[in-house]
Amino acid sequence: MSPVYVLKWGTFPRFWIENYSTELANSVMSRCWWTRDYDLVVFDEITYVINYGFIPLDEVLSGLKDRRPDLHVRLTGRAAPPELNAVGDIVTEMQAVKHPYRDGVSAQKGIEF
Questions:
Q1: pTM
Q2: CB 27 within 8 A of CB 60
Q3: Could you read off the pLDDT of 22-66 as tens digits, one per residue?
Q4: How far apart are CA 42 and CA 14, in angstroms?
Q5: CA distance 69 to 65
Q6: Which of 60, 65, 86, 103 has a CA between 20 and 30 Å from the CA of residue 26?
Q7: CB-based contacts of 24: which residues, under 8 Å, 6+ apart?
Q8: Where are the domains of the chain?
Q9: CATH 3.40.50.300 for the 4-103 domain, yes or no
Q10: Contact at 8 Å (CB) between 50 and 57?
């Protein structure tokens, strides 16, 4: 299996996300983009961080353009900006057909977070 690096924004305290998201994203990009340590980098739920203005969209787009050609990058989250969709090789929009939330079941540790 290829080495994977996953950055889960939901695991950080809100204060940290609001104040240090750009530095964290840049750190991951500089660490993973040109080394051969990882074949896949996942920025889980990064669209929220972009949409709330904690990371400038232009920095994400620039970072994606500057990565090594064989590095796969996955960005997840709802309401991706159109500019992000435009540069993606694959864009998927998921829709819940059936979900426990509708029956009043709260998010479960290890499943939704």
A1: 0.75
A2: no
A3: 788 878 887 788 888 888 988 888 898 899 888 889 988 998 888
A4: 20
A5: 9
A6: 86
A7: 7, 12
A8: 4-103
A9: yes
A10: yes
What is the structure's pLDDT at 1? Answer: 45
Q: What is the DSSP letter of 101?
A: G
* Residues 27/35, Cβ–Cβ less than 8 Å: no
Phi/psi at 74 (5° precision): -120, 130
User: Count H helices, E strands: the chain?
Assistant: 4, 3
Burial of 21 (0-12, 13-18, 19+ CB in 10 A): buried
Phi, psi (deg, nearest 5) at residue 82: -55, -35
Helix (H, G, I), strand (E, B) or coil at 110: coil
- Is 17 within 8 Å of 44 (Cβ atoms)? no
